[in-house]
Amino acid sequence: MTKSTSTANHHTTSTSKRPLRSGRFVLALVSMAVLAGCANYSSVKPGMSIAEAVQKLGKPSTTCTREDGTQRLIWTMQPYGQYAWGTNTTPQGTVVELQQLLTDKHFQVLTTGTWTDQRLLCEFGEPANKYGISKGNEIVWAYRYKQEDVWNSMMYVYMGPQGNLVNRFHPAPDPDALSDGDRMR
Fold first, then answer.
1. Predicted TM-score of the model (pTM)
2. Among 67, 48, 64, 47, which Cα is nearest to 56's?
3. Mean pLDDT value across residues 2-23
4. What is the spatial distance between Cα 101 and Cα 64, in angstroms, rounded to a whole number?
5. Domain edges within the chain
6. What is residue 18's predicted lDDT score, i.e. its pLDDT?
7. Which helix (DSSP H) or strand (DSSP E) does residue 131 occupy?
């Protein structure tokens, strides 16, 4: 059993429409913050103590304690950013390797084994959105990311009718990144 805590703000979408211009402005600000913070993420090296990593990156948005007592630490830019970094720790309290989690390659881990909501949270952190869909009566977690390092996308992870077990996932264009002409009406 793993325990997790998350300091990320839970963001649920609504049908209210916000001006596209302000959404683009927020996305631009977040993108600049991510680019400015890249040097910080690259400064966390394997073998560094957890305290040193937290000093450089701040408090993780998600912390999970694993069965063996080690931890999984995740720093995410969700709900509006497209990146999340995570690391496992050793029993001695050092980080193993900091890696970018929201990539096509890393999402492929969802094809192996059984993925509960808790395991998903401890692997990728909080999603940008959690949706309830009536057709199929499912909960969907949506992670904003750069598909193939190019396309503004969302990875939709379907959690079944109880919202606790992954049954499929797929990428799609990020609706907040589409221009007015590209939006479905």
1. 0.76
2. 48
3. 46
4. 15
5. 20-182
6. 43
7. strand 129-133
| Residue 183 confidence (pLDDT) above 80 | no
The CB-based long-range contact list for 30-35 (8 Å cut-off, 24+ gap) reads 30/77, 30/80, 30/81, 31/81, 33/77, 33/81, 34/77, 34/81, 34/82, 34/83
CB within 8 A of 46, min separation 6: which ones?
94, 95, 96, 97
Rounded Cα gap, residues 38 and 25, in angstroms: 20
Domain 20-182 adopts which CATH fold? Beta-lactamase Inhibitory Protein; Chain:B, domain 1 (3.30.1450)
Contact 92, 46 (CB under 8 A): no
3 state DSSP class of 83:
coil
Task: Compute the Cα dihedral for 96, 102, 103, 108 and give only its sign.
Answer: positive
Strand partners, 87: 73
Angstrom distance (rounded) from CA 176 to CA 179: 8
Find tokens 């084994």 and name the residue: 113
Distances (CA, A) of 58 to 61, 64, 74, 98, 109: 9, 16, 11, 14, 27
User: How does DSSP classify residue 161?
Assistant: T
